């Protein structure tokens, strides 16, 4: 395996390790990507297309355990990272629909704002890739 390929694989692995959530009770930082409790009941996996890149950084937000949220996938919402219904505007012809999600524990979470994550709606470090960093000034 070439040195360049090994570096690229390591960089890709490191991107996936860079996302954090904190527990509201203890304030401890956990280096895992949170799980969407509604993942098997919603269309996150059925919508293959990613939305427009809104920002090149994730958004830290406090989420409550028993509340259902709608994460904007289209990238057009004015209340990012959550959906405000902009995808319903028939003149914009937006195909993506929001991703509904719940979290296991109340606390602070990093939600993806580049809309390119593979762990919708949570940030997985994809925003650190060069093509995303150059897409938004």
Name the descriptors.
137 residues; alpha+beta; four-stranded antiparallel β-sheet; two-stranded antiparallel sheet; 2 helices; 6 strands; 15% helix; disordered N terminus
Strand order of the largest sheet: 2-1-6-3
Rg of Cα set: 16 Å
> Care to count the β-strands?
6
Q: What's the mean pLDDT score?
A: 80
Number of helical regions: 2
Principal-axes shape call: globular
Q: How many domains is the backbone divided into?
A: 1
Q: Uncertain segments of ≥5 residues (pLDDT<50)?
A: 1-21
> Helix fraction?
10-25%
Short description:
By secondary structure, the chain is an alpha+beta fold. It contains two helices and six strands. It has one domain.
